[in-house]
Write a structure and sequence with these properties.
The chain has helices at about 25-35, 40-45, and strands at about 5, 20, 50-60, 70-80, 85-90, 95-105. The protein has about 110 residues and is α+β, with helices and mostly antiparallel strands.
Length: about 110
């Protein structure tokens, strides 16, 4: 899966903030494996949901000596089922586990 470049929430300037980040295949594979090993995500996949995007949440830590460490601490995985079902899967990368799933269903009534 190639998700290309993504805005990086959590950096100065808010979501996107003018920064782009190339997500490696290793990162994508790691996040996808964490998601697919979660029983609730497996249930969504069985209902026809597919992963459509992966958004890393980047944290910068300023150490006592002034050095800055940058690390992706969280990832948001977007999933979609056709045009009516959407899921946002949040995961803690340090613990390699899903921490929250928000499912939104859209119904359109055309008159």
């Amino acid at each position: 899966m190639d998700f290309g470049r993504h805005g990086v929430p959590g950096m100065m300037g808010g979501f996107g903030g003018g920064y782009n980040l190339q997500v490696s295949q290793d990162f994508t594979t790691n996040v996808t494996n964490i998601a697919q090993n979660d029983s609730d995500v497996q249930n969504l996949i069985s209902q026809g949901y597919n992963i459509t995007a992966i958004h890393p949440i980047i944290q910068n830590v300023l150490n006592g000596n002034g050095a800055v460490t940058t690390q992706a601490t969280t990832a948001i995985v977007m999933m979609q089922n056709g045009t009516s079902g959407y899921a946002q899967v949040t995961m803690d990368l340090s613990q390699a586990k899903v921490t929250q799933i928000v499912i939104t269903t859209r119904t359109v009534i055309t008159k």
